[in-house]
């Protein structure tokens, strides 16, 4: 029996659990969340303890994934779990389309209707959310979140822990720096540096997010 532990039982964590259940690869799915013991379940899935408990027990599970939406927290928590001996799982919803010639690193999740095309590389602890598209040869660094409906044309590069907003579009061959935020519906037609928050059509700097 394959057992999956998810750290974080909030909204994103429940979507991760739902995708894992839909994949039919896991016979047992459980949460660990610091809301325990006040909260002991989320929907059909039990909460067995907090983060400290998972660090103690992580080697007992066939896979562990961090279901926390905040990029830096998700990535750092994944690294902490690996250091404790956890085997990071990759969760891909059965209605996502991922090329056999793309690479998806451990700890990442790809939700329904998302597309990852040939030559793309998805780093560790990334979220490719519902209906997001990653075209050929895109390079997505660790801890990135592509929100629902975000569209990356071919050859786009996204830096560590950046966040691409819902329905944002990025032109081919554009580079987005690390820890950047691209706002909802933004149209990115020029490179964006580290730490920027860019919004609008065409996307322009709002402020520095670091």
Explain the overall architecture:
It comes from Pigmentiphaga kullae. InterPro entries: AcTrfase_PglD-like, PglD_N, Trans_hexapeptide_repeat, Trimer_LpxA-like_sf. This is Sugar O-acyltransferase (Sialic acid O-acetyltransferase NeuD family). It holds the Pfam family PglD_N. This protein has about 210 residues and is an alpha/beta fold. The chain folds into 2 domains: about 5-90, 3-Layer(aba) Sandwich (Rossmann fold); about 90-210, Hexapeptide repeat proteins (UDP N-Acetylglucosamine Acyltransferase, domain 1, 3 Solenoid). Helices cover about 15% and strands about 30% of the residues. It is globular and about 45 Å long. The termini are far apart.
Short descriptors:
210 residues; Rossmann fold; UDP N-Acetylglucosamine Acyltransferase, domain 1; eight-stranded mixed beta sheet; 3 helices; acyltransferase activity; PglD_N; AcTrfase_PglD-like; Trimer_LpxA-like_sf; transferase
The first-level CATH class name of the largest domain: Mainly Beta
Number of domains: 2
Instruction: Extract low-pLDDT stretches.
Output: none
Level of helix content?
Answer: 10-25%
- Number of E strands: 24
Q: What is the number of helical segments per DSSP (H or I, 4+ residues)? A: 3
Shape: globular
The helix-and-strand class reads: alpha/beta
Largest sheet: 8 strands, mixed
- Which assembly state applies to the chains in this document? single chain
Rg, alpha carbons: 17 Å
The CATH superfamily of the largest domain is Hexapeptide repeat proteins
Question: If classified by CATH, what would the architecture of the largest domain be?
Answer: 3 Solenoid
Kindly identify the CATH topology of the largest domain: UDP N-Acetylglucosamine Acyltransferase, domain 1
**Averaging pLDDT over every residue, what do you get?**
96
Helix-strand topology string:
EHEEEHEHEEEEEEEEEEEEEEEEEEE
Reading side by side through the largest sheet, how are the strands ordered? 6-9-12-15-18-21-23-24
User: What is the end-to-end distance?
Assistant: 44 Å
Strand-residue proportion: 25-35%
Protein name: Sugar O-acyltransferase (Sialic acid O-acetyltransferase NeuD family)
Pfam families: PglD_N
Domain PglD N-terminal: 3-79
InterPro entries: AcTrfase_PglD-like (IPR020019), PglD_N (IPR041561), Trans_hexapeptide_repeat (IPR050179), Trimer_LpxA-like_sf (IPR011004)
């Amino acid at each position: 029996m394959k057992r999956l532990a998810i750290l974080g039982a909030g909204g994103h964590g429940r979507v991760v659990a739902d995708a894992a259940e839909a994949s039919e690869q896991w016979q047992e799915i459980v949460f660990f969340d610091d809301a325990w013991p006040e909260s002991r379940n989320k929907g059909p899935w039990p909460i067995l303890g907090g983060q400290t408990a998972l660090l103690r027990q992580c080697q007992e599970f066939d896979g562990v994934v961090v279901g926390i939406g905040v990029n830096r927290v998700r990535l750092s928590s994944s690294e902490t779990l690996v250091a404790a001996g956890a085997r990071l799982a990759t969760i891909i919803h059965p209605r996502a389309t991922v090329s056999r010639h793309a690479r998806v690193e451990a700890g990442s999740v790809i939700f329904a209707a998302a597309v990852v095309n040939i030559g793309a590389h998805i780093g560790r602890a990334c979220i490719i959310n519902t209906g997001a598209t990653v075209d050929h040869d895109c390079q997505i660094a660790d801890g990135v979140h592509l929100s629902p409906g975000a569209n990356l044309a071919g050859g786009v590069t996204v830096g560590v822990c950046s966040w691409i907003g819902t329905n944002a579009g990025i032109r081919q061959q554009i580079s987005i720096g690390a820890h950047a935020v691209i706002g909802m519906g933004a149209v990115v037609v020029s490179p964006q540096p580290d730490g920027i928050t860019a919004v609008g059509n065409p996307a322009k700097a709002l402020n520095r997010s670091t």
